[in-house]
């Protein structure tokens, strides 16, 4: 699971006014918009599975300006299918399951424009925006060849672009959290093909973010992961290598662009690992990420960006 955060702030004149935080806290995600990582930024519950309560808090408590991703099932009462039908053939377990009433209707009353397709998203005007583009995740997580699908209704890069264009005129700055969930979920299934595919979409989203930073020098862009999944290792082709079975099996071969060579991906687990994850950054305070740090260091740096001095 990889996350892109884009805290942007306009440096205040000297002398500085009292601390003031950006008012916009949007997010875009290929998982449910109420999944654990985004929920940690915009809600407070004792149970990460209480996604209908998390959705309620989005609308009634934290009120982010832009919410884009999957997870329509948690915004509607059980038995009330929305734009995405209950029990679809690709996953019959998916169905509306909320217990907090029709939260989409409540969002509209709270001033959100609601969209559920790429065309509607492209035509959405500036203002508070809620977009739900799947029952649950915006893909089907399975081992390779067993119903695995990565074909989001709206790509992460498109959601990122829309979020940035919507928030660009906010004079107080904004914080945007963007997550590609497929890299985590497909790695749980040791599905290298889909992991690489979702990584390519993350790369497109990062390109969108970097293009924005290139014309907004007061924006800090941070790219990192919340953890490693699968014990993924890239290996060269070697017929004598022990490929293993089950979670130790190799995946591949995969071609290398511009080369006749190829590579394999080797897995050691279907779970999370304690492997360090890289943090890269560009923009104000990006030099603070040089070296090796505890994960709380990311918070420490972002806090400086998000609070004007």
Q: Please state the structural category.
A: alpha/beta
> What would you call the shape?
globular
Give a short account of the largest sheet.
Answer: 8 strands, mixed
Cα-atom radius of gyration: 20 Å
* Low-pLDDT residue spans: 1-21
Describe the SSE topology.
Layout: E1 2-8, E2 27-32, H1 36-42, H2 51-62, E3 66-70, H3 103-109, E4 113-115, H4 118-123, E5 129-132, H5 156-167, E6 174-180, H6 182-188, H7 192-214, E7 221-225, E8 228-229, E9 233-236, E10 250-255, E11 262-266, E12 272-273, E13 279-282, H8 296-306
Task: Give your account of this protein's structure.
The chain has 309 residues and is of the alpha/beta class. The protein has 8 helices and 13 strands. It has helices at residues 36-42, 51-62, 103-109, 118-123, 156-167, 182-188, 192-214, 296-306; strands spanning 2-8, 27-32, 66-70, 113-115, 129-132, 174-180, 221-225, 228-229, 233-236, 250-255, 262-266, 272-273, 279-282. The strands form 3 sheets. It has an 8-stranded mixed beta sheet with strand order 4-5-3-2-6-1-7-13, with helices on both faces. A 3-stranded antiparallel beta sheet has the order 9-11-10, with no helix packed on it. Strands 8-12 form a two-stranded antiparallel sheet. Helix 4 links the parallel strand 4 and strand 5 (129-132). Helix 5 (156-167) packs parallel to helix 7 (192-214) and helix 6 (182-188) packs antiparallel against helix 7 (192-214). The two termini are 32 Å apart. The relative contact order is 0.17. Residues 1-21 have low confidence and may be disordered.
């Amino acid at each position: 699971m990889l996350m892109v955060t884009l805290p942007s702030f306009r440096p205040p004149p000297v002398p500085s006014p009292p601390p003031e935080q950006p008012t916009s806290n949007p997010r875009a995600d290929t998982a449910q918009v109420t999944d654990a990582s985004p929920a940690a930024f915009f809600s407070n519950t004792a149970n990460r599975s209480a996604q209908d309560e998390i959705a309620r808090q989005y609308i009634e408590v934290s009120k982010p300006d832009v919410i884009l991703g999957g997870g329509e099932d948690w915004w509607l009462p059980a038995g009330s299918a929305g734009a995405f039908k209950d029990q679809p053939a690709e996953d019959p377990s998916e169905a509306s399951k909320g217990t907090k009433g029709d939260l989409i209707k409540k969002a509209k009353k709270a001033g959100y424009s609601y969209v559920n397709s790429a065309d509607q998203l492209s035509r959405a005007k500036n203002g508070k925006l809620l977009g739900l583009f799947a029952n649950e995740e915006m893909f089907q997580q399975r081992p390779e060849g067993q119903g695995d699908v990565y074909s989001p209704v709206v790509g992460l890069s498109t959601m990122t672009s829309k979020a940035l264009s919507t928030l660009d005129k906010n004079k107080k700055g904004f914080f945007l959290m963007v997550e590609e969930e497929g890299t985590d979920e497909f790695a749980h299934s040791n599905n290298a093909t889909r992991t690489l595919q979702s990584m390519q979409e993350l790369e497109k989203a990062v390109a969108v973010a970097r293009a924005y930073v290139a014309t907004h020098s007061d924006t800090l862009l941070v790219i990192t992961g919340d953890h490693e999944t699968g014990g993924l290792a890239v290996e060269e082709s070697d017929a004598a290598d022990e490929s293993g079975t089950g979670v130790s099996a190799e995946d591949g071969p995969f071609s290398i662009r511009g080369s006749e060579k190829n590579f394999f991906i080797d897995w050691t687990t279907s779970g999370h690992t304690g492997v360090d994850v890289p943090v890269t950054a560009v923009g104000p305070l990006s030099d603070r990420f040089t070296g090796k740090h505890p994960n709380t260091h990311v918070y420490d740096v972002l806090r400086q960006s998000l609070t004007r001095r």
